[in-house]
Amino acid sequence: METTAIEKLAPFRVGEWLPSDQTILQNWLRDLIAEVEKDKRPLLPVIEEFKEFIESDAEVFMWFNLMFEEVPKKFKKNPAGAPQVRNYHLMLRLMNRIMTKAPEFNETGLVGFPINAILDWSMGTTAGYAAFLNEKVNWQLKRILSEWAIFLSSKDSTYVLNKDPKTGWFGADAKKAMPDFDQEFICDPAKQHHGFKSWDDFFTREFREGQRPLADPDNDAVITNACESAPYRIAKNVKQHDQFWIKAQPYSLEHMMANDPLLDSFVGGTVYQAFLSALSYHRWHSPVSGKIVKAYVQDGTYYAEALSEGYDPAGPNDSQGYITELATRALIFIEADNPAIGLMCIMPVGMAEVSSCQITVYEGQHVKKGEQLGMFHFGGSTHCLFFGPQVKLEFDMHGQTPGLDSSNIPLKSKIATVIN
């Protein structure tokens, strides 16, 4: 078989998974495909609208046909011989089916992102690369994800919390993955669904008082972890412009900050990035004390991933640097009380199904270190902290080297100290 250009550019990387993880993902998709093959219900209005958009826009129609044709033949069926998603018609029917489903627990975390699993290999093709960067495509995806969010905020979505020992979020498998859940989070185990009123209510759960104590509350030279997150990268002397799509995925400030006039303060400075998992706490807290100078959400992509990362089975997971320039994200600029810090910025970035970055503070508000700034609604996510070139930092990664194999540093723990 002839090797395609994209296979030469970025080889298949499924070997980095545990075999059981890949089997779970394949079985989940196989079962969902079997469900929709028997499901004769019409498409929901928002999915029908997406179908009409694909078929009426010549360029998009071409992309959504080519992205499935470009998937190498060896990936069109899984190792057990079961079919993968093979055209946009099946893609739409699978999306239609999950619009009234809440994400189930599984040990990989991946099926927590069902659309991500549906688009699995097609995202890594050249046509998929083009399609998922398109503004009109992302506008349609935002409508779908927003519609799904309404279901996930309803009482009907709670069924998955106690549904099954293996797939329920309070089932036996989930309890092994989150053994201290009842002690860590505000909930009532005596109530149905632990007192959570919806899937979204469960997802945006809060820590109990005292679970994440603030490091050095009276020392404004200590910067604390803004999210319950694992360190991904520390970059210094960051450029205003850079080629963020290449293998190294360098940061490009002008694109990350969407040409905001305040970006000049950060050219040549430092960026710290860390990522959250599906099991993580998904609210953001201020890493410093100071005044909110500006806060807004920048719309962007949902399923774009770097071609240089190839067929990433976890969707944008390996493209975390790349998506900071493109994905839907919040920008919160804070003038720190500590003049040695000055203006800094926190940027929560949505990945895959994360369609909502909700800011809960307002411009002009003074926040104390550790106070809440906002939250993600659903999915896995990443975030960046920006500091100007005048800020000298000594990072504390809690004995880890930043990267995709790192582990969570607790929320509000020290991650850096300003050196005067």
TrEMBL record:
An MF annotation (GO) of this entry: phosphatidylserine decarboxylase activity
InterPro entries documented for this protein: PS_Dcarbxylase, PsiD-like
UniProt-listed Enzyme Commission number(s): 4.1.1.65
GO annotation terms (biological process): phosphatidylethanolamine biosynthetic process
Keyword vocabulary terms for this entry: Decarboxylase, Lyase, Pyruvate, Zymogen
Keyword match Nucleotide-binding: no
PANTHER family per UniProt: PHOSPHATIDYLSERINE DECARBOXYLASE, PHOSPHATIDYLSERINE DECARBOXYLASE FAMILY PROTEIN (AFU_ORTHOLOGUE AFUA_7G01730)
Protein name: Phosphatidylserine decarboxylase
Species of provenance: Pedobacter cryoconitis
